[in-house]
Amino acid sequence: MFEEFLAELTKLRGKSVLVTTHMNADPDAVSSALIALRLSELYGAKPCVTFPQGISKLAREMLDLTGVMLKYCNGTSTEACFVVDASNSVQLGEVWSTCSSVPLKVLVDHHLPGNIAEVADLKLVDPTASSATELMVMLAHKADLRLSPQEATLASSGIYYDTRTFSYASRYAFKAMSVLLDWGCDHKRVSKALAVRKRGDLSLRMAVLKALSRLKLERACEDLLIVTTHVGSFESDVANVLLSLGADVALVISDKGGALRVSVRTSDRALSKGVRAYDISLLLAEKLGGEGGGHEAAAMAHLKVMPLEVVVEEAAKVAYGRASRACSGR
Ligand SMILES: [Mn+2]
Fold first, then answer.
1. Mean pLDDT of 118-128
2. How many angstroms is it from 125 CA to the middle of ligand 1?
3. Which fold has domain 2-198?
4. In this predicted model, what pLDDT tens digit does every residue of 253-312 receive, in sequence order?
């Protein structure tokens, strides 16, 4: 699949390419965008990157740690879009208005296919991949592109982050890491930086404890624990923590001003009973108005704004209903 994709990438030659990804880009999104830039250059394009609503704090730390510089777009015309690590147009925010109208749309992603895959002219979508970065590294490797040691180190942060330090790694993650190590990646710096942050960040610790103080807990299917709560930020990290504390379905809502973001996680126990984060995110979007998408065990819904108490109540109902139906085989 990598070779076929690369053969088509020659269509980028001579074009000004806008590389982009999901809002609040995490290390996987930023690393994928970096490789998309390099790959586009290799194929004779003139690429630049735009991050809708900027990048996450952690992604910023990884850029600072490695000293990697990216070429940012500054309002020049766009002839092609190269989207990485995103499945739905809503994730691109205002950048989608540019990308939806360009004649060539390229997508590399590891989420379950959403509406971007429907309209992409050239795509490599593999939901079994544990990160978008590993797919991009495999492409770079097959194209004989070689990243610098600093870039390889940044790329390893994308894989570390999305696989949660290899707990969820797919076979490409290990293959890609081996390629990155050949390119001089200093993975120990990345793993140390991520571990220190996990333990220490004051605002993350506050978000976790506030989330716990506002937690709504329900039980479905005998032994599935569904928790719903809201935070100001760190909704994805908080959802992960809730799962590590024993929740089977975690819904963490955050008001992003103009939209609500719901981070959905499901445990192995929930998945084994057919309760998938992805389905819950789609249901939330359908029932409450918005868009959902992501992976089986980790997904996100973007919803229209409504009072937080209302959405906590409604989201819990949706998750409970989905779990109950899945357990009774419906
Ligand atoms: Mn990702």
1. 97
2. 12
3. inorganic pyrophosphatase (n-terminal core) (3.90.1640)
4. 999 888 899 999 999 999 999 999 999 999 999 999 999 999 999 999 999 999 999 999
Per-domain boundaries in the chain? 2-198, 207-327
SS3 sequence of the chain: CHHHHHHHHHHHCCCEEEEECCCCECHHHHHHHHHHHHHHHHCCCEEEEECCCCECHHHHHHHHHHCCCCCECCCCCCCEEEEECCCCHHHHCCHHHHHCCCCEEEEEECCCCCHHHHHCCEEEECCCCCCHHHHHHHHHHHCCCCCCHHHHHHHHHHHHHHCCCCCCCCHHHHHHHHHHHHCCCCHHHHHHHHHHHHHHCHHHHHHHHHHHHCCEEEEECCCEEEEEEEECCCHHHHHHHHHHCCCCEEEEEEECCCCEEEEEEECHHHHHCCCCHHHHHHHHHHHHCEEEEECCCEEEEEECCCCHHHHHHHHHHHHHHHHHHHHCCC
Please give the CATH number for the structural domain made up of 207-327.
Answer: 3.10.310.40
Separation of CA 30 and ligand 1 centre (Å): 9
Inform me whether the pLDDT recorded for 213 exceeds 70: yes
62 CA → ligand 1 middle, Å: 15
Amino acid 312: pLDDT = 95
Ligand 1 centroid to residue 329 C-alpha, Å: 31
Position 195 scores a pLDDT of 78
- pTM equals 0.85
Can you give the pLDDT at residue 199?
64
